[in-house]
Design brief:
The complex is a heterodimer of chains A (about 425) and B (about 80).
Chain A (H helix, E strand, L loop, with lengths): L26 H7 L19 H32 L4 H18 L20 H20 L6 H16 L7 H33 L5 H41 L11 H17 L2 H10 L5 H20 L6 H15 L7 H29 L3 H23 L20 H11 L1
Helix pairs in contact in A: 2-3, 2-4, 2-7, 2-8, 2-9, 2-10, 2-11, 3-7, 3-8, 4-5, 4-12, 4-13, 5-12, 6-10, 6-11, 7-8, 7-10, 10-11, 12-13, 13-14
Chain B lengths: L4 H38 L6 H27 L1
Helix pairs in contact in B: 1-2
Classes of the chains: A mainly alpha (about 425), B mainly alpha (about 80).
């Protein structure tokens, strides 16, 4: 038992030693690291003496990521409901927030692993690596939000983990075959499946209700949308809040505040749920606009079909263990519904931008996180520097967003979000390099 | 590298079938409901009842699928 506590001693003095993770975990290596804390008697309680500077920073950053995850992904569940008028914008984000919070309590099973096997967690995920991964993921999330593009928060996190692990541990720390089979293939397949299902469902919905008065059937589909988008919110809360719980829990384990294999403590579940719910309530209006009215003109039967398709694909595949992206599935569903609708039109310019963003998410987050991992590895000052870069990057993107704000009152207007594209990406990279 | 194509195909097939099934049943319920509204509006007594029952059955079936979905999330 004790031999399986990787990385435990590496953070006690606040100066992480990243390459320790490569040691074989034998009794000998355990002994060699010496001076272990005798914390095993306090297995389940959170020993505050174990919370080093780095661990505290990781926990705060994880909650910040959870928050960006929330407002980045509000659009997934609610964009089409807002676009068709099934739910008023403020009501929609309130429902989504409540259900995301509720979803966080439904299950903690996934929370015992961060990455689903894409990085080798057995070799001990260093808090500095997790921190760097989170920084990359947050900055990518904010940049795509600024540009109003729905990109996958999960992929940003995975990309961040891969980049930080490659820099901090080495190439062998990443299971590339798992990356392909559990992330890349579902990433390509799931939007197509959702799009196909949604296209077919839209066609059938229009076919079945063609004889009935449009006014009365649209009212029915709007009611249905309330349920279908709620189900997406609930599934999202369960999946994504658990990722943050997993990050905090594993960080606490690596710091020796929890024993290995421990369930997330209640305060972790509550704070992760709160962070994602607050983020959701903020409403990523820029992305809601892109998804709700940027891709296609969505009527209630299309909205209901795409939401049903998305909810089904998400539930089926998470049941089968695929870590797919809620965002991509929902966007795929909307595209299918747009094509299957009466006009059959899709705004291909927006489709193209989204698909490019999806392709960029993993490598971009990996690059930023790799750089962050390199700096954070230098010690406390490195961590502080990366933290500063994160705050500056996030702040500058928020300021840029103020130039052309999107909010609940103008979310359904179809003018594009145009923010100077060149200024934004420069902000995080230069501050990180500095 | 081992990719379980069968599992992927199964996931895709099940998703497709469930989506189409739910939307068709919901659309039928919707149709039945609008027939009922039309019947009520035309003032014919009792004519809307079968339509109302049909709509109820359809929506109940959809609710059952949603319930199953939530149970999947919770038991995971």
């Amino acid at each position: 038992m004790e031999t399986q506590r990787p990385g435990q001693s590496d953070v006690t003095n606040g100066t992480p030693t990243p390459f320790v993770v490569n040691l074989p975990f034998t009794e000998a290596s355990y002994g060699r690291r010496g001076q272990q804390r005798q914390s095993d008697h306090y297995d389940d309680c959170l020993g505050m003496e174990h919370i080093t500077f780095l661990v505290a920073v990781v926990i705060i950053t994880a909650l910040a990521f959870d928050f960006t995850n929330g407002f980045h992904d509000t659009a997934n569940a609610m964009a089409t409901s807002i676009a068709t008028g099934a739910l008023k914008p403020k009501v929609a984000v309130a429902i989504a927030a409540v259900l995301n919070f509720a979803g966080a309590f439904l299950s903690v099973k996934v929370a015992t692993t961060i990455s689903g096997g894409i990085v080798n967690e057995k070799s001990g995920l260093q808090p500095s690596i997790i921190f760097a991964a989170l920084v990359g993921a947050i900055l990518w999330n904010l940049l795509t939000w600024l540009k109003g593009l729905p990109s996958s928060s999960s992929h940003a996190l995975y990309g961040g983990l891969i980049g930080a692990t490659v820099v901090g541990v080495g190439l062998h720390g990443v299971n590339f075959s798992t990356v392909v089979s559990k992330i890349l293939i579902p990433a390509v397949a799931s939007p197509i499946v959702a799009g196909l299902a949604s296209w077919g469902a839209t066609k059938l919905a229009y076919l079945i209700t063609r004889g009935a008065p449009k006014k009365s059937t649209e009212k029915g589909f709007k009611r249905g949308q309330m349920f279908s988008s709620s189900l997406i919110s609930l599934a999202h809360g369960t999946n994504d809040a658990q990722k943050t719980m997993g990050i905090i829990t594993l960080t606490l384990v690596s710091a020796g505040a929890l024993h290995k294999g421990a369930q997330p403590p209640t305060w972790v579940i509550v704070s992760a749920g709160l962070a994602i719910a607050l983020g959701t309530y903020m409403g990523g209006w820029r992305i809601i606009r892109s998804m709700g009215s940027g891709l296609a003109d969505i009527r209630p039967p299309q909205g209901f079909s795409s939401e049903t398709a998305a909810a089904t694909v998400i539930l089926t595949s998470s049941h089968m263990g695929y870590g797919l992206s809620t965002t991509q599935v929902c966007s795929g569903g909307i595209m299918g519904a747009g094509l299957g609708g009466p006009s059959g039109k899709l705004r291909w310019g927006m489709v193209r931008r989204m698909v490019y963003t999806w392709g960029l998410t993993l490598p971009a987050a990996a690059a930023v996180s790799g750089a962050a991992a390199f700096v954070a590895d230098q010690g406390d000052w490195g961590v502080a520097l990366v933290g500063l870069a994160l705050v500056l990057g996030a702040g500058s993107m928020w300021l840029l967003s103020r130039r052309q704000p999107v909010h609940a009152d103008n979310v359904n207007e179809t003018t594009q979000v145009e923010v100077p594209v060149t200024a934004a990406p420069a902000a995080p990279t230069t501050t990180i390099a500095a | 590298m081992q990719i379980k194509w069968a599992a992927l195909a199964e996931t895709a097939g099940v998703s497709l079938a469930v989506t189409l099934g739910v939307v068709v049943v919901f659309a039928l319920g919707n149709l039945a409901l609008s027939r009922r509204e039309a019947a009520v509006a035309s003032g014919a007594t009792g004519k809307g009842v079968p339509a109302l029952v049909a709509a109820g059955v359809c929506f109940a079936a959809c609710a059952a699928v949603v319930g199953y979905g939530i149970s999947l999330i919770a038991s995971k």
